[in-house]
Amino acid sequence: MILDWFRDRSERGKLIRGFNEAARSAFVLGTAPTLMKASVSKGERTYRHKFSDWLNTGFRIQAFKGRQLSRAELVQIGSVIMSDSILVRKLVVLGFDTLEVCCDAGDYGCRWQIKDYMQIER
After folding, report:
1. What is the pTM of this model?
2. How is the chain classified by DSSP, letter by letter?
């Protein structure tokens, strides 16, 4: 049981590192117009679900474009992330419950409750 906690920590770190490497590559190659960086954040307490981690349940993406991004641009980034059903399921399994997309200014920007985007057939 306790060893599973450390494996989950490792998997969360791998997901963040993998996202950041892919985002950097896409920006350098010009396939992404905005540089993005993922990190773990506190999350929104009201978004908790059965599999939420006990601490730091937010998946935060900071977007760097050289200017303040509009709310519509932040929503567009979040919509692309939330439309990736495999990524959404990974986030839930790894204990994340909140997606935050913000500018490099450090404000919260926009938030999504991840479990609402799992696309599970009933």
Report:
1. 0.86
2. -HHHHHHHHHHHHHHHHHHHHHHHHHHHHTS-SSEEEEEEE---GGG--TT--SS--EEEEEEESSSPPPHHHHHHHHHHHHT-HHHHHHHHHTT--EEEEEETT----EEEEGGGG-----
